[in-house]
Write a structure and sequence with these properties.
alpha/beta; Stationary-phase Survival Protein Sure Homolog, Chain: A; 9-stranded mixed beta sheet; 25% strand
Length: 260
């Protein structure tokens, strides 16, 4: 069994190394991770400049590489050129949550999504705390068990598993919930500043807006002390609207009238 491990916090992140120790006990491990933190890069890829690759060593891994690109670059390169016959892609452990609509911004989840796109079952995992003193040991052990279940029971190839673990002691975790994506919006406060040459720039800040969540949401589950496990399908089509739009757009629009 071969696992490609990546993240968006960079090659030196504690979450990555904690997870590497656990996964190396159950599989042949390969690590392909960014050279620095790449949080919030979403599914971006590098196309207008070269992607630098440095081979390195990691005690737990059969092979390890530092990538001068995004988390998605790591998976693309890892699966295409660096590692043969990978059975699973695991992304994490992220230092902070990836819940609800955050998954669209997340480099952690996007790395797993790229694994799915390339035909490899994938898992993303996050520890829901930004505290620098947080320990990743329990989260890493839990992820190892998730991977074991995946090995035994399988994962749908077109779906990734997104795991979020609340920042609690193991004894305080209430259990596990299989969840749906919740709502996660931000204040989006742009602070206006000036550089030394007098040019204006903006710095994005703002916290999470507290919103009502549906009972099955991942946000609510972690707030209530449960580990959330969310299957995420990459097909974004709204199938319920297909027939409605076929009817309404065919009536009011035509190709011949497109330039009128």
């Amino acid at each position: 069994m071969r696992i490609l491990l990546t993240n968006d916090d960079g090659i030196h992140a504690r979450g990555l190394h904690s997870l590497a120790r656990e996964l190396s006990s159950i599989a042949e491990l390969y690590v392909v991770a960014p050279d620095r933190e790449r949080s919030g890069t979403g599914h971006s890829i590098t196309v207008f400049e070269p992607i630098r690759v440095i081979k390195t060593s990691m005690n737990e891994a059969k092979g390890a590489w530092i990538i001068g690109g995004t988390p998605v670059d790591c998976v693309k390169l890892g699966l295409s050129r660096l590692v043969d016959e990978v059975d699973y892609v695991v992304s994490g452990i992220n230092h902070g949550p990836n819940l609800g609509t955050d998954v669209l911004y997340s480099g952690t989840v996007s790395a797993a999504a790229e694994g799915v796109i390339m035909g490899v079952p994938s898992i993303a995992v996050s520890l829901n705390s930004y505290d620098e003193d947080m320990e990743f040991d329990f989260a890493a052990k839990f992820t190892r068990n998730v991977v074991r279940v995946a090995m035994k029971r399988g994962i749908e190839k077109k779906t990734l598993i997104n795991v979020n673990i609340p920042p609690l002691d193991e004894k305080d975790i209430k259990g596990i919930r299989i969840t749906k994506l919740g709502v996660r919006n931000y204040d989006n406060l742009f602070e206006e500043r000036q550089d030394p040459r007098g040019n204006t720039y903006y710095w994005l800040g703002g916290g999470v807006i507290k919103e009502e969540q549906e009972p099955e949401s991942d946000v609510l589950a972690t707030q209530e002390g449960y580990i959330s496990i969310t299957p995420i399908h990459l097909d974004l089509t709204d199938y319920q609207l297909i027939q409605k739009y076929r009817k309404s757009f065919s009536i009011y629009l035509s190709v011949s009238g497109a330039t009128e």
